[in-house]
Amino acid sequence: MSSDYEKIASLDPKSVWSIFAEMTKIPRPSKQEQKIREHVKQFANNHGLGVKQEAIGNLVLTAPATPGHEGAPVVVLQGHLDMVCEKNRDTAFDWDNDALRLKLDTDAKTGKRVVRAEGTTLGADNGIGVAMALAVATEKDVVHGPLEILLTIDEEAGMSGAKALTPDSFTGRKLLNLDSEEDYALYIGCAGGCDTNLTWRFDARPAESNSEICRVEVQGLRGGHSGCDIHENRANAVSLLTRTLCRADVSGIRVREIVGGSKRNAIPREAFAFVAGPAGLLSALKKAAENVRTDSAAESYEKEIAIEVQKAVMDKPGGFLSEADSRILLDALSALPNGALAMHPKVPGLVQTSNNISTVETVTDKGALEIKAGLLSRSSSDSSLEFLKHRIAAMGRLSGAEIATANQYPGWEPNPESPLLAECKKVYEQLFGEPPHIAAIHAGLETGIIGKLVGNVDMVSFGPTIQGAHSPEERVFVDSVAKSWKLLVAVLAKLA
Fold first, then answer.
1. Alpha-carbon torsion 225, 227, 228, 232, what sign?
2. Which residues are designated catalytic?
3. Which end of the chain is more exposed for a tag (fewer CB within 10 A), N or C?
């Protein structure tokens, strides 16, 4: 365990940080929440909280009201148990068993204290929100009415936990979602989303004996959250890799393997490909890589972008795509929409519609090569999301891909007249002497699904400032956790 663990567990508010620090010892990838679920159940039992586990794995904990406040309305505190598991390539880490290596650090831009993990994601998304919910339910000095704590599974990889909720899952109809990442804002809306998977299947043949075989690798990108960070025009490793291969001034390129990204909701930070071609391929690719790196660094303002080209030997079984099939594949990947595609016409600065080319992988199957691309589309407009799905499917059909969509979820329609919003806004202004920023978020929150499946739920989302979520750059600001805790405690007291 990192030497900073004890320091972090003792930060203010200690009840929150100690719970979060314990959570970082427990692996909790999406769809593998068994260990963290058992940990939370044991925590609940130790503190006299009620526990209900739904068939899919969601937990609903119940806490009685502070004496004298039993007649207050039930408030639901909601978060998710899983985290995005990303690591740097040179970091040795076992996501099934290892504890995160915590670091108490200083943010280079602001000089403020932050908590991060060494070489991996931190899981403050949404571990800090879960920790705040557990802390208020067990902290004796916090005044509140009856509480329900709804902790869902699989939020990061499909939202299957939220999609299994029913009107009987919980009784409260005032819900505070603790999964936002800017401490100055109250969120009242979010985008919906949908996965699209494209699969191309091509015959493979050996490369000519005099071919040059090269490995092209893109690395050093910032990556990040494909909802929260998409507006920053961050570079996408899959797109840069494709761009490099297409820009090489040589004919006859044949693709053998192309791989990039790891999570559907993370902007890819790394990608590589093996290709074959005629004499001169190596020098042509190196020149293309240099040009693409220069251009992309200027476009995205990412100074650490690296595109490396090396001569290689293919030591894996299987062949290469033909020149024609390689061109079809690279043209298709080039043509797929990526990044922020439209801004909201009524909310300045809010992305309305985006698409992330999230992953690409290559599978050898009986002498053929299957290339699979995974994309995540988001939009606060249902019609725009449907049209984007059509555009992607059209590109798939034109290039001969098999098309599959999955994990579609609704957005959360803002309600500026929300009584809960009015209460939260009033408390925020009293505490901090200024009004909060009322906003919608381009990322997907479970509130949209909850609103659709449960119905008649008044909802607001807030949380501490987290930057770099879904990447090893993830960090949570220490003072913002204290600020969000102060807001949560005061809101619960007001509602009680």
1. positive
2. 82, 155
3. N
pLDDT of residue 2: 54
Structure confidence at residue 314 (pLDDT) = 73
pLDDT number for residue 243? 98
Question: Cis omega (within 30 of 0) on the bond before 126?
Answer: yes
* DSSP-derived secondary structure letter, 265: T
Q: Which residues contact 116 (CB under 8 A, 6 or more apart)?
A: 102, 103, 105, 122, 473, 474, 475, 476
Q: What six digits make up the tokens of 440?
A: 């919608």
The residue ranges of the chain whose pLDDT is under 50 are 1
Helices (H), 67-114: none
Q: Which two tokens stand for residue 253?
A: 């390129």
- Location of structure tokens 């650090």: 105
Nearest-angstrom CA–CA distance, 266 and 225: 5
At 422 the pLDDT is 98
Nearest to 332, CA basis, from 244, 194, 193, 200? 200
Structure-token pair, residue 311? 């001569």
CATH superfamily of 5-191+411-495: Zn peptidases (3.40.630.10)
- pLDDT for residue 1: 46
pLDDT of 348: 84
Identify the pLDDT of residue 343.
94
Dist CA 83 CA 30 (whole Å): 6
Question: Token pair for residue 137?
Answer: 């339910």
Amino acid, res. 28: R
CATH topology of domain 194-407: Alpha-Beta Plaits (3.30.70)
Task: Find all residues with CB under 8 Å of 100, minimum gap 6, and list them.
Answer: 24, 25, 117, 118, 120, 122, 123
**Cα–Cα distance list, 149 to 47, 61, 91, 237 (Å):** 14, 5, 35, 38
Length of the chain: 496
The single residue listed with the structure tokens 């803002």 is 414
pLDDT at 8: 97
**Residue showing tokens 């390539």:** 89
| Structure tokens that stand for 218 in this block | 């893109």
Query: What pTM was estimated for this model as a whole?
Result: 0.85
CATH 3.40.630.10 residue ranges of the chain are 5-191+411-495
Q: How far apart are CA 323 and CA 202, in angstroms?
A: 11
Q: Which two tokens stand for residue 112?
A: 């403020």
* Portions of the chain given CATH number 3.30.70.360: 194-407
Could you give the CA distance from residue 178 to residue 130 in angstroms, rounded to a whole number? 7
Q: Are 230 and 442 in contact (CB under 8 A)?
A: yes
* 135, 19 Cβ separation under 8 angstroms: yes
- How far apart, in whole angstroms, are the C-alpha atoms of residue 178 and residue 191? 17
- What amino acid is encoded at 459 in this protein? M
- CA gap 393, 332 in Å, rounded: 11
Residue 218: is it exposed, middle or buried by C-beta count within 10 angstroms (0-12/13-18/19+)?
buried
Are the beta carbons of 227 and 441 closer than 8 angstroms? yes
